[in-house]
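So, could you explain the following?
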Amino acid sequence: MPEVLRLAAFTFDPAGGNPAGVWIGDALPEPDEMLRIAADVGYSETAFLAPDGSGAPGAYRVRYFSPAAEVPFCGHATIASGVALAEREGAGRFDLATNNGVVTVDTAYGADGIRATLTSVPASARDADPALLADSLVALDWKQDELDPRLPPGVGYAGAQHLILAAASYDRLARLDYDFDRLREIMLAADLTTVQLIWREAADRFRARDPFPVGNVVEDPATGAAAAALGAYLRWRGELSPPARFTISQGVEMGRPSHIEVEVPDADGGIRVTGTAVPIG
């Protein structure tokens, strides 16, 4: 059985970023076995990769598992997978067939190591359902007037769905103490992967925190899938005009700072997310 590689994504420091497991083999294990391995690894997600059977260079089937369940897409584990594949095969493009479509990962050598850029499936956004919003605010212990009225609640999609709530102040974002079980039930009913809580620090710079109770994780220190979903949301809201770029700082309050670069290249396609990954000793 191949070993599970352990990498921290969206950082150059093994003590920062978001840890991900990466399993690469000739054929994917059965789902129950992938879930068992992911639970044993204990990170928010582990990516499982095997050649997709087409014979095309760099073409892989990938599935993502948290310790509790399969998730449709995981950005930080995709970045970690891209770095791991580049280290094995050399830098270049990899095509990863996820449950919801193909995600391309472009890798290149930089001054500080390998950088990976994923391009999500076609991304979109919509208004948050009022009942979902009301229930989520109660579970988070947030008040309606603590939200930023310039960035109304929405749901972004770039391979997985994320509820996006913008805080009016950093002080509100910095205080995270929520009802884990209640928020988990709400998210499962709405098919949400994380709740992305953001604060707009500048036009092209955001701070973020991501509760992830559906994966039995209180908070994710870096969430590439949610970063892509935020790009879709900002495009849909007209907050940026493609091509555009912005950055996200996440994990700071947890002591695992992460740096995520996001590019919105066009008006209706996928969102590009760039980061690095380093081995965890």
In short: Residues 124-272 form a domain with the Diaminopimelate Epimerase; Chain A, domain 1 fold (CATH 3.10.310.10). The radius of gyration is 17 Å. The first helix runs from residue 31 to 41. The mean pLDDT is 97.
